[in-house]
Specification:
This protein has helices at 13-19, 26-33, and strands at 42-44, 49-50, 57-58, 61-64. Mean pLDDT is 84; it is low at 3-8. With 75 residues, it is of the alpha+beta class. 20% of the residues lie in helices and 15% in strands. The longest helix is centred in the middle third of the chain and has 8 residues, at 26-33.
Length: 75
């Protein structure tokens, strides 16, 4: 009998920090990295800017709150 193990996509905070923070809106980060971040999980840049992924002017994620970073472990 063989057990099938599912792999969980994980992204580290450091990888996200160098790749997506200060560039993408929350919706694009959720789509690109397969996350489930809510509005309350993120800290945003003060003024709306153009998202580098979708091209729309939205609130760009500056950081993920420390108590919400566990959501990076898998979706």
């Amino acid at each position: 009998m063989y057990l099938r193990m599912e792999t969980v996509d994980m992204i580290t905070y450091n990888a996200l920090k160098s790749g997506g923070l200060n560039k993408y809106c929350r919706e694009c980060m959720n789509r690109k990295y397969h996350l489930s971040l809510a509005t309350k999980d993120c800290e945003y840049i003060y003024f709306p800017r153009e998202c580098k992924r979708c091209g729309e002017v939205k609130n760009i994620v500056r950081d993920i709150k420390i108590f919400s970073r566990w959501k990076l472990l898998g979706s």
